[in-house]
Every structure is written in C-alpha cells, then in structure tokens.
Write a structure and sequence with these properties.
By secondary structure, the chain is mainly α. It contains ten helices and no strands.
C-alpha cells in the first residue's frame, strides 16, 4: 500500500507539473472560465432557437455535461502525451493493470474540471431570472457523478485512442456527441425514439434526465450512468492490453 501511495503521489506531481492550464494567467482564465462559458452560451442560444422549454435547465445540463467532457478530455490528453513520450509504454508493459497510473492521470483533470464546473454552474445561477436555490442544490449534488462519469469515460476514450494514429480521437468524439446524446438542448423525452436508444449507451444521459424527473427515479438513473461509464472504462482497459500486446510484438500505430 505504501508503494502504491508513493507512486500515486509521484504521478500526480508529474501530471500537475506537465499541465498547461496554469502556464500563464491568460491561459488559466481562457481554459478554466472563458471556453466553458462560451460552450454553455452556445448550447443555451441553440436551445432558444429550437424553442427549448426551459433555458435555465439547458444551461445547467450543459454545465454538467461540460464537466464530464472536460475530465474526459484531460485524461485523454495526459495519456496521449505519455504515449508520445514513451511513458505509457514503459508503465503498461510492466504492469497488467496499473491503478496508480490511472488515478494519477485522472486527479489533475478532475481538479481543473471542478474549478471550471463551479464557475459554469455559478454563472448559470447568477444569470437565471428565478435563481432557484433548490435547482442549484440538485445540480451541485450531481456534479460528483459527472466527474466520476467523466473519469471513467476518459479511461475508455484514452484506452481506445492510445492504439490509434490519433490518440485524441476518443475525446473528440465524446465532446462532439455527448451533448446530443444526453439531451442537453432539449430533454430526451422530446427527442426521437432512435436518439433515446442511442442515449442509453452514453454516460450522463441519466444524470441530465434527473433535472426533468422527480426524486423517485433519480437513484436508478444515476446508477445506470455509472454502470455505462464503467463499461466504457472496461472497454478502454481491454484495448489498452491490446495496444501493449502490439508493442511487445514490435508494432506501432503512432504516426511518428
């Protein structure tokens, strides 16, 4: 256990030192505040064009999904950088499942995403006309679920992408399709049936749906999201082992 904690702490320090989010004050402001708020504003304006029934709900949903997507992108970016530096290959050819590595690469993205998420959720509350404290409390309570889903989804996307020429592809797909498949713009209940079927495969679809349901069904929706996210993480870990087997055989997919 002592060795695990030391390796985890060392990994977190390295990940923090290599993060570009705090390279300059301008970079930090744009990364943690400006871009997330612009993404939420885009979703709210699109919802207004599509006559979404509740734009405040759209803003909160966008903030939660952006929180999960941000964590996912952070994990993918760290793993991709490690692959390019040879760190990923060194770690995973030595250990079949290195939990210390995955926790280490997830810690800093989770912290940065929480800062971003807090700013985004606070902005939606401040700009809403009603300023519903009860709704704010529900969204804040859902934020940890969004972080966990983002971490697990990041493991899945990173594991799949690490064996591809473009290791960032998984994060790109997640950030593109997750808002659509989770019912950010309008509730999933108003979406076509085929889209609701696809939404069952996307983490966060249940979490966002809790903004439209009573308290009775929340537990089942959150449990489903976590189970789906855990499944995607399992797929990522399995494909990681495939990538390691290719490395041992002298095969590489990276373009350099």
């Amino acid at each position: 256990m002592g060795l695990f904690i030391r390796r985890l702490a060392s990994g977190v320090r390295v990940t923090w030192a290599s993060s570009t989010a705090f390279a300059t004050v301008g970079t930090a402001v744009v990364t943690l505040l400006v871009l997330p708020l612009l993404n939420i504003a885009y979703d709210v304006l699109l919802g207004a064009d599509l006559s979404a029934p509740d734009l405040v709900r759209t803003g909160y949903a966008a903030a939660l999904v952006a929180l999960a997507s941000s964590v996912c992108a952070g994990v993918v970016g760290t793993v991709a950088a490690d692959r390019n530096l040879g760190v990923f290959q060194e770690v995973h050819t030595r250990r079949r499942l290195d939990l210390a590595y995955w926790f280490a690469v997830a810690a800093v993205p989770a912290l940065l995403a929480l800062l971003t998420g807090a700013a985004a959720i606070g902005a939606v509350f401040a700009l809403s006309a009603a300023q519903d404290v009860a709704m704010l409390g529900r969204v804040v309570a859902l934020a940890p679920v969004a972080v966990v889903c983002g971490l697990l989804l990041g493991v899945g996307a990173a594991g799949i992408g690490v064996d591809l020429p473009d290791p960032y592809l998984g994060a790109t797909i997640v950030s593109t399709f997750l808002p659509l498949l989770t019912g950010v713009i309008v509730p999933l209940s108003l979406c076509p049936a085929w889209l609701r079927v696809l939404a069952a495969l996307a983490p966060m679809s249940g979490t966002v749906s809790t903004l439209d349901t009573g308290a009775d069904g929340i537990g089942a929706l959150l449990a489903r999201d976590l189970l789906v996210a855990l499944t995607w993480a399992g797929v990522g870990l399995a494909t990681t082992r495939h990538a390691v087997a290719r490395l041992r055989a002298g095969l590489r997919r990276d373009v350099i």
